[in-house]
Design goal:
Length: 143
Amino acid sequence: MRNLALGLAALTLSSAAYADYPLKGDETILCTGMQYYECLLHKGCSQVAPADISAPTLFTIDLADGRIDSRSGPDDSRSTEVKQRVVIDNKIILQGAEDGVEGVRDGLGWTAAITLDEGIMSLTASTDGAAFVIMGACRPVPR
């Protein structure tokens, strides 16, 4: 069932977006994760469900303003600022860092790479002894 849902999400994103590509790099885009991985020191990497790592399933990225809004469930809404934005080899690279919960050593750094021609997204986040990878796709938000 999970593979069916991921396949439908990929089909929806890819078929609806063809007319809007390539991305210009200054619009608002909607991204969805399709594959999630957790990598732990001394344990290696394994595929996980988004809920297993409290990861967002949808991202809205305002490429012009450098703002990312995301959700990992109905009661969880997050927002972050892009600290660095660079275009290299027809990819937009976004980077940032999060402190997490105050008083808890849970801060992490993240990087997202999104191809401008197809909207393919790879997002990584790393912290003490752990890394997370989200593979997905993005498409422009209709105006």
